[in-house]
Design brief:
disordered C terminus; binds 2-acetamido-2-deoxy-beta-D-glucopyranose; nuclease; endonuclease; 7-stranded mixed sheet; exonuclease activity; OB fold (Dihydrolipoamide Acetyltransferase, E2P); Endo/exonuclease/phosphatase; 9 helices; Deoxyribonuclease I, Chain A; 3 domains; 628 residues; alpha+beta
Length: 628
């Protein structure tokens, strides 16, 4: 009892604290030990000024890498008469600020009062990252992630509650947190993604990185999601970052302030980014995987065509990509084909006009005249843009391929595996009434025959075209929830199991049945829904089967990562007995700038890609202005 009383007395006595250093205020954890308290006589030199405040750096370092020597002083009018290089002593209130409950807090001093101006004209030198600091950690984000930022279950702890002691040499978020408020320089920066609509751009400097791909982006791999990157936010001088920066662009040296906002640690640069050099060639080469026109050398492409409607502005470029870059595969797996009047929200569900318009454009671009097959979903039941009724569909060369005993199912028919193996509905949807699909696409299964001389079938195979549920609802990879929320992962887990069991039932009838599943799985190959998928189905990840280097396995850029949501998985029967599969990712949409970007890419003998609009752009949302 008495010790409790003493404790209370102590808290009261430090409510106004004198002569704290900036490092003491920041402390060695994410949250300040002085949060909510009024402080005075905090001294530092002004290192930068912004529209809503300024940053000070302590003149007496505590030599502890965990405690930042700098802090943000929030106050719109404070410092009107002060300038960079002024040494000042201030009072104010220590505040932990975040604009959204899912973000990490930023430590700042608010309602500042200038107590003393000590001197002016002090030299302000930025810390060069990787030289004056340790190198940013390259794999893990926080000690709270259990070693895997995509582990399930997720959101088992919160940074704001666990508030671990920072380990800046081990964890990326700890590293950037330990530099919050600091003026830093990024030497020889490279853009590792495209800017968002505000011009915010992910970069790495000249420090050691992991996951670098041939385009100088960083590819996410198992247990390595690239925390060594940093996003460059709005310039402090009111200029605007370019919006056309591309993957792998080299930039001028960046100097600015480390802070946290909109879900990410970021650097606010003193002035706008400037591109000095871009990767060459600008566009990828066309695929070298060509059809032999026979059963022994068929080609397959996959393309998320992103809300494609008959009137879509990007329809001609999709057609040109299929002809020029994918060299007109014998069979195309398409995702996100909208109905005949696109997002108009009425009872129309047929995509015949959308698909025939695309086919005409392909033919006009010098390609073959494809045939198509799809199954229209029930109106408004499969997710995506309201009214668009997106679905998966196939384009195929009718001179070479045909459906085996066609018997198309409706949106509600569940196709089943019959002896043979054969399908009860061809094409058909897998268990469309199953609650696991929720408002998302049901996989489209088809059984095909290869047309030989005289119209005789010379072989056959099954395809499953998938577009699993989206990652909407994900929290920021640098947010409060640890591991971060992987939106829709439970749905995708159930969808993966249903689809895998369907494939297994084909393979249970005949181990030599050829099965190709492809499309937008909205998940990484090394994450649980897809590891379950391969283990139940017995299918092989084609990337691994043909030995594509893990860093070259990407079909999409999201946050700091080149990543792979689109995949092809094939039955072992297609890889055995001297058969040799080839596979490429054709980066028609990841290498270009955001304005030029059409939909996505991948090529079995393959091709896939994605503006996956369903993925939650957590960091792109602007909260209300910083008001307290
Ligand atoms: C403020 O702190 C400085 C040391 O940084 C000290 O010399 C000075 O006496 C303090 N002033 C007050 C009023 O506490
Ligand atoms: C800035 O200086 C001017 C003139 O000395 C003074 O009138 C004004 O109050 C000062 N502003 C602040 C915010 O200290
Ligand atoms: C769409 O085309 C298919 C043949 O591919 C045909 O059976 C069906 O009736 C068409 N639907 C509409 C609404 O025109
Ligand atoms: C994570 O869990 C906490 C409860 O512990 C909850 O308040 C928060 O909303 C969750 N975060 C997300 C992004 O779902
Ligand atoms: C991505 O899709 C959204 C929604 O359809 C669209 O508004 C946006 O323009 C697309 N972005 C690009 C770069 O194609």
């Amino acid at each position: 009892m008495s010790s409790l009383l003493r404790f209370c007395t102590l808290v009261a006595s430090v409510a106004v604290t004198s002569a704290l250093t900036v490092a003491e205020i920041n402390g060695n954890k994410f949250l300040s030990p002085y949060n909510g308290q009024t402080v005075s006589n905090v001294s530092g030199v002004i290192t930068a000024k912004g529209p809503d405040g300024l940053w000070i750096r302590s003149t007496t370092s505590d030599k502890d890498a965990r405690t930042s020597e700098s802090v943000y002083v929030f106050g719109r009018t404070f410092g009107a008469n002060l300038t960079v290089g002024d040494a000042i002593a201030i009072g104010g209130k220590v505040v932990e600020y975040r604009s959204n409950k899912d973000y990490v807090y930023l430590t700042e001093i608010s309602t500042p009062v200038l107590e003393r101006k000590v001197s002016s004209g002090n030299t302000v030198k930025p810390l060069v990252i990787g030289k004056d600091t340790s190198n940013p950690p390259t794999e893990q984000f926080t000690s709270l992630d259990g070693g895997d930022v995509f582990a399930v279950p997720n959101n088992v702890s919160l940074v704001s509650v666990a508030n671990p002691v920072l380990e800046p040499k081990k964890y990326g978020m700890d590293f950037w947190e330990s530099l919050c408020g600091e003026l830093v320089t990024v030497r020889r920066p490279t853009a590792v993604a495209k800017p968002n609509s505000f011009g915010d751009t992910w970069v790495v400097g000249d420090w050691r990185v992991t996951g670098r791909n041939g385009r100088d982006g960083l590819t996410m791999t198992d247990k390595d999601a690239n925390p060594e990157t940093i996003i460059i936010g709005s310039p402090l001088d009111g200029t605007t970052n370019p919006k056309t920066t591309k993957l792998g662009d080299k930039l001028e040296e960046i100097t600015g302030i480390v802070t946290y906002a909109f879900g990410f640690y970021r650097i606010l640069p003193s002035t706008a980014l400037k591109v000095t050099n871009s990767q060459q060639p600008t566009l990828p080469s066309t695929t070298k995987i060509l059809s032999s026109g026979k059963c022994s050398g068929l080609t397959f492409g996959a393309y998320n065509v992103e809300n494609l409607a008959p009137t879509s502005a990007h329809l001609p470029s999709v057609a040109a990509h299929i002809v020029d870059y994918l060299k007109s595969p014998d069979l195309m797996f398409l995702q996100e084909v909208q109905d005949d009047n696109g997002p108009t929200n009425d009872a129309v569900v047929s995509a015949n006009l959308t698909l025939s318009t695309l086919i005409a454009a392909i033919s006009a671009a010098g390609g073959p005249t494809y045939a198509f097959t799809d199954i229209a979903p029930s109106d408004d039941q499969d997710g995506g843009q309201p009214g668009g009724n997106i679905r998966t569909a196939y384009l195929y060369k009718p001179s070479l391929l045909r459906l085996h005993k066609p018997n198309p199912g409706t949106a509600l028919d569940a196709t089943e595996v019959l002896p043979g193996p054969a399908l009860s509905f061809n094409p058909g949807r897998i268990d469309p009434a199953n609650a696991a699909w929720g408002a998302s696409r049901k996989p489209l299964v088809a059984q095909w025959e290869v047309v030989g001389k005289g119209g005789k079938a010379t072989g056959g195979f099954f395809t499953v075209n998938v577009h699993f549920g989206s990652k909407g609802g994900s929290s920021s990879i640098q947010g409060d929830a640890r591991p971060p929320v992987n939106g829709g992962v439970d749905d995708r887990q159930a969808q993966a199991e249903i689809t895998a069991n369907f494939v297994k039932s084909i393979r249970d009838v005949s181990k030599s049945a050829h099965v190709i599943t492809a499309g937008d799985f909205n998940e990484f190959a090394f994450v649980d829904p897809l590891t379950t998928y391969t283990s139940i189905s017995g299918l092989k990840d084609l990337d691994a089967a043909v030995g594509i280097r893990p860093v070259e396995r990407y079909t999409y850029l999201f946050d700091m990562n080149a990543q792979q949501l689109d995949h092809m998985f094939v039955s072992p029967s297609m890889l055995q007995g001297g058969k040799k599969a080839r596979y490429e990712h054709v980066h028609i949409n990841t290498w270009v700038d955001a304005a030029a970007m059409g939909p996505t890419e991948n090529m079995l003998h393959s091709l896939a890609g994605t503006n996956d609009t369903n993925q939650q752009p957590m960091g792109l949302q602007r909260p209300p202005p910083h008001v307290q």
